[in-house]
Amino acid sequence: MKIDILTLFPDICCAPLGESIMKRAQENGIVDLQIHNLRDWTTDKHHIVDDAPFGGGQGMVMKPEPIFAAVKDLRNPTSRVVLMSPAGQRFDQQLATQLSAEPHVIIVCGHYEGVDHRVIEHLVDLEISIGDYVLTNGAIAAVVLVDAIVRLLPGALGHEQSAIDDSFNHGLLEAPQYTRPAEFRDWKVPKVLLSGNHAEIAKWRKEQAIKRTRENRPDLLHE
Length: 223
Description:
CATH class of the largest domain: Alpha Beta
CATH topology of the largest domain: Alpha/beta knot
Order of helices and strands: EHHEEEHEHEHEHHEEH
CATH superfamily of the largest domain: SPOUT methyltransferase, trefoil knot domain
Shape: elongated
Strand content: 15-25%
Radius of gyration: 21 Å
Largest sheet: 5 strands, parallel
Helix content: 25-40%
Distance between the termini: 31 Å
Number of domains: 2
Number of strands: 9
Number of helices: 8
């Protein structure tokens, strides 16, 4: 899989996407991740990427020319262009799974008061929001998007079952996990997890996943 990120702040993406699982996925050729500075596609000597909004209003709007030029250079017939925007479709595990099957994703990171709407109307395939709140810029959201996608790629995790068992993959939160010691400050690990009975362990985990989802995310049980 190939992922291109277009942002005004490449360093925001480089640090977290250059560590741990993301780093190994790139080193092992599982994902080809490229982070680009959108200013490289400006044509003026000051590398201007924004301007005041028509009709007045606060803040600045990202200009369409650099974004269109960058996507034109990076795009191929299999590309999917995504815009990180608080006005987009809410990101979830199902969408992460869908995007992980794409051969090439180009991620445009919004900033300021957003992008010129002609980018959305004529260039972007999908607008994505990672939640109902506003961040300083879309590069932070892009890191979340890429991490969620890449960890689903075959070979990215040490154990393939890890991604399958994650929260949200079955519409439920993940069941509680425990490790050694079996007793800590008089708090004991549930006996069933020490029993070696895999059928009973699976049953317990399903029950606990439902209980945890009901307590923390009851909305998932009604979808």
